[in-house]
Design brief:
By secondary structure, the chain is of the alpha/beta class. The chain has one domain: Alpha/Beta hydrolase fold, catalytic domain (Rossmann fold, 3-Layer(aba) Sandwich), CATH 3.40.50.1820. 42% of the residues lie in helices and 14% in strands. The protein is built from 13 helices and eight strands. Strands 1, 2, 3, 4, 5, 6, 7 and 8 form an eight-stranded mixed sheet that branches. α4 crosses α5. The longest helix has 16 residues. It is globular, with a radius of gyration of 18 Å.
Length: 296
Amino acid sequence: MSEYINRRRRYLLGAAGVSLVTARVAIAGSARAASTREASQRSDAIRSFTSLKQIDAGVLNIAYVDAGDPRGRPVVLLHGWPYDIHSYFDVVPLLTAAGYRVIVPHLRGYGRTRFKASDTPRNGQQAALAVDGIALLDALKIQKAIIAGYDWGARTANIMAALWPQRCTAMVSVSGYLIGSQELNRIPLPPKAELQWWYQYYFTTERGETGYAKYTRDFARLIWTLASPQWSFDDATFERSASAFDNPDHVAVAIHNYRWRLGLAPGESKYDPLEKKLATLPTIGIPTITLSPPSR
């Protein structure tokens, strides 16, 4: 299913997805109604994630939320573009109330996540983000986790589940199967579908890169509005996430992500074997729930 369909009501779908993992895929027990209400009340009382941890993982030093019982079954929640960890702000207390350990990382180019070396390419290709996810599990000494995501996060979860199924207990993916390849992305879509990707084509130009760098917050706010026309988010909600785009590598990673998809920017050769496997559109064999928004 095309990613452009995913752009509506991300926050609601992200919450629904992880709730479904808890209720149907996950392992032992579910939150009692009283616990859920209590968790929701706690969430309402806190405006943002106030305590982030940092850990070296692969080429990154990753900023992440680590909430709940350290001995609980781990769940990793992966955000998309142009959003951040606060997509899951209301989900985390529901899962921790049910006994899970919840990890919510800022992806490369977001928040306080940083590249450890200045000469590491600011690469946004799909395989690189999935390797980041596995590196985070390794760094946290987590052998297996439930993986959930939307947009970039869904694609990353898909790849982790397809290439490293031994590390993934189950998966929730908004908009289903999002693994792609540069070859597939060369195939044109019908005009109405292409219109949904206007920003991708804008990003292929020097003007687009300069414009995104100059108007990052304005751009993100526009995408939020276009993607979720019935979502009346307030300034505080937007600013809570928008600060993540101040990351010095955000623009470079985002621009590379979309240019790489169209074959207009090279990836790193170390990821070539993974991309070769992904180009075959590998089957995902772990327990999976997919979510799609209603059509307009």
